[in-house]
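Case study: Mediator of RNA polymerase II transcription subunit 10.
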Amino acid sequence: MVSPETPGPAPDSPRSSQSPVPEGHQGNLELELLGLANALYNLGTTVINDSTKERDKPGGGKQVGLRVNQVVQHLSTVDNMALDTRTMIPMQILTDIDNARNPMQLTRERLERTATENQFMNGKIAAIASYRDYLNEALCQNFPELEELLHPSPSDAPMAETPVQAAHDIELTETIPNGH
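Here is what the predicted structure looks like once written out:
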């Protein structure tokens, strides 16, 4: 249940729950951006109220100027905080936002496209492996002497030594004279 002191998130808010704000600079920046969003909302409602019947009242225009100053103050603070921010944001994300596209939707689409391409590549790999097996069988039928090269048995395969094992074996033979 949401307390009267803590308003619930806006329906279009990117923060779907009242999870705690991150600590440090990132959290301060997030709070400042939230304050900027509220200041812009307040400016919009003030302009709408000012452009209706309240326009004729004396001193009505001062409210808009005050709201504009609040927005400018928040923008200035965000600009100053940006100097200390090291988080890199891909230009494609900013372009998507400028073009009024939801980055989360695009991310989902990119993941789906990548998964599809991955499945396609796995199919290609399976087809090539199948072709290789078919080719090896045909080569073995027509050239029996290639059987050992194309299908080596596990006992025929020499044990591969790693460079570390080889170096260790060399050290042992050098330190123990006559192999004793």
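For the exam, be able to explain this: Helices lie at 25-50, 60-82, 91-98, 103-142, 147-150, 163-175.
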